Amino acid sequence: MQTLLLNADDVDENARMDRVIDAVRGAFTAYERGNAKMPAKSYIDLPEYNGDFRSMPAYLDVRTEDTAEDDGWDAAGIKWVNVHTDNPADHDLPTVMGTMIYSDPETAFPLAILDGTTLTMKRTGAAAAVATDELAVPDATSLGIVGAGVQSYTQLEAIAAVRDIEEVVVSDLDEERVADFIDAFDDRFDVRAGSVSEAGHCDVLSTVTPVEEPIVGPGDVGDHTHVNAMGADAAGKHELADGLLSDATIVIDDHEQCTHSGEINVPYAAGNLTDDDIYGEIGEIVVGNRPGRAGAGSGSDAAAGGTRNAGVDGVTVFDSTGLAIQDVAAARVVYEQADADGNGYPFDLLGLAE
């Protein structure tokens, strides 16, 4: 038995976005139903290198009594990821790099070692797509993006899989990055540069910046805009003004992570937001235990006329910190596809070959 080594190109090729979105939706479902094990993300701070390491282990089981045997699955793995802000200038390396180990839950055999950076981009886009599907107006056709870095690409790729996006407005202080983004997508969408407010008045807005001073205020979004706040991943980061957050319906991915390092961490620590201001977790909406946007949602509970059809209205915000269960779910998609197609490099990691 061999371990499959999958580099960035392999992950990109085999992470079919429609399947990753379904897998991430399944991860949120398993987590909400108590069928996942996910210890808190652990940090190793290295101020001497202006960086840190983070470890993210998880196990999830999407099998239920109603799941057909061929459709049920469980999965386990761990992602080891860093944030070293001096890397690009000092070492010609990316700020963020990740490595994913995907294992067989029954035997613990390492089925694959994957590039975790590309995997993170894919599952982050997929998480925004799941939230958009549940919280954005059903007829959304415009998407605003604040921040034209690497994460912006999978935001558009994923959200366009759940809404018929036609118009895209991208805002970034770096004109070259904006031009690169437009070049990448102008053959598929009506995409243009714009201000933060122009991006924010789209039907859906994704913010993917590392700022610590809010750049999107209450007047920068439309009356029914759904906002995917994707940039905050550490204490002190804060993209959306407190006034916007206090007026919006806030949905989080995980209470511990969001209050520690998500979009709400700064106003929560200051007492400007409390648990009473948090509408619920995305998993609750996915399984139909709490209403999403009226008429939105493509999950089975919505199709069956679940409670989400009562619906929230106005501005909604999804605070996404990124969960290890998402990485494991996405890794399974990549491994299964690569294994079936003969992609990647199989090798005898444990020296068990005869």
UniProtKB/TrEMBL annotation:
<feature type="binding site">
    <location>
        <position position="237"/>
    </location>
    <ligand>
        <name>NAD(+)</name>
    </ligand>
</feature>
<feature type="active site" description="Proton donor/acceptor">
    <location>
        <position position="79"/>
    </location>
</feature>
<dbReference type="Pfam" id="PF02423">
    <property type="entry name" value="OCD_Mu_crystall"/>
</dbReference>
<feature type="binding site">
    <location>
        <begin position="231"/>
        <end position="233"/>
    </location>
    <ligand>
        <name>NAD(+)</name>
    </ligand>
</feature>
<protein>
    <recommendedName>
        <fullName>Alanine dehydrogenase</fullName>
        <ecNumber>1.4.1.1</ecNumber>
    </recommendedName>
</protein>
<feature type="binding site">
    <location>
        <position position="320"/>
    </location>
    <ligand>
        <name>NAD(+)</name>
    </ligand>
</feature>
<dbReference type="InterPro" id="IPR023401">
    <property type="entry name" value="ODC_N"/>
</dbReference>
<dbReference type="GO" id="GO:0005737">
    <property type="term" value="C:cytoplasm"/>
</dbReference>
<dbReference type="InterPro" id="IPR036291">
    <property type="entry name" value="NAD(P)-bd_dom_sf"/>
</dbReference>
<dbReference type="GO" id="GO:0006522">
    <property type="term" value="P:alanine metabolic process"/>
</dbReference>
<dbReference type="GO" id="GO:0000286">
    <property type="term" value="F:alanine dehydrogenase activity"/>
</dbReference>
<feature type="binding site">
    <location>
        <begin position="150"/>
        <end position="151"/>
    </location>
    <ligand>
        <name>NAD(+)</name>
    </ligand>
</feature>
<keyword id="KW-0560">Oxidoreductase</keyword>
<feature type="binding site">
    <location>
        <position position="123"/>
    </location>
    <ligand>
        <name>NAD(+)</name>
    </ligand>
</feature>
<keyword id="KW-0520">NAD</keyword>
<dbReference type="InterPro" id="IPR003462">
    <property type="entry name" value="ODC_Mu_crystall"/>
</dbReference>
<comment type="function">
    <text>Catalyzes the NAD(+)-dependent oxidative deamination of L-alanine to pyruvate, and the reverse reaction, the reductive amination of pyruvate.</text>
</comment>
<dbReference type="InterPro" id="IPR028609">
    <property type="entry name" value="AlaDH_arch-typ"/>
</dbReference>
<keyword id="KW-0547">Nucleotide-binding</keyword>
<dbReference type="GO" id="GO:0051287">
    <property type="term" value="F:NAD binding"/>
</dbReference>
<comment type="similarity">
    <text>Belongs to the ornithine cyclodeaminase/mu-crystallin family. Archaeal alanine dehydrogenase subfamily.</text>
</comment>
